[in-house]
């Protein structure tokens, strides 16, 4: 009788050790599994985001810079894959984005196009220029001569940055119909109309997670006045556009 009791006790002992060892291995493989985010909303978002990504959207956020494209990329990253784009020329047939943030030559499969959303966000060019256009690297990104200076633009009284051309390339109908739509979004209206934006892209998001506008006011000086004159025609075109224009 004692023999069987002793055998049974040893069996239970080894089983408990095996179970404890299994838990230890699991904790080693998944060291973050029991760590909760410091942000209380993250634990609530995770199931919703996992559900969203089961039907993955792909957003291309295009701009000539200084228009809130990085902000929009961050916001849309909750709802799908996001690509930041500075290409000046939208292609006739949608392609992948290369390392330079330009459209490449690799076509998107026809059956996948339904998941792609091309967004062109634009802003008053004067504010955009004063925000980003003093950086040669940025000028190169938007396929502009990186040696162009603000002083040259002001002295020539011409759009040497080619912003008007960049804007027209996305907002006006092309000679050959594209196999995708371009959603042109006015930055100035975005923060007041995020709910309308979400509806256009079939996004469900509580207002508590909406992005908040953060801008730094630039001093109003003689350069500002000169740029307003140079870009007066373009600014009027932008002001006449609705919040979202589909091209």
Walk me through the topology.
Elements: H1 2-29, H2 42-52, E1 57-62, H3 69-76, E2 80-85, E3 95-97, E4 103-107, E5 116-122, H4 125-132, H5 136-141, H6 150-156, H7 163-171, E6 182-186, H8 187-190, H9 194-200, H10 222-230, H11 232-240, E7 244-246
Parallel strand pairs: 1-2, 1-5, 5-6
Antiparallel strand pairs: 3-4, 6-7
Please, could you describe this protein's structure?
- This protein is an alpha/beta fold and 247 residues long.
- It has eleven helices and seven strands.
- The strands form two sheets. A five-stranded mixed sheet has the order 2-1-5-6-7, sandwiched between helices. Strands 3-4 form a two-stranded antiparallel sheet.
- The longest helix is centred in the N-terminal third of the chain and has 28 residues, at 2-29.
- The model is unreliable at 1-5 and 27-54 (pLDDT under 50).
Properties at a glance:
7 strands, two-stranded antiparallel sheet, 247 residues, alpha/beta, disordered N terminus, single chain
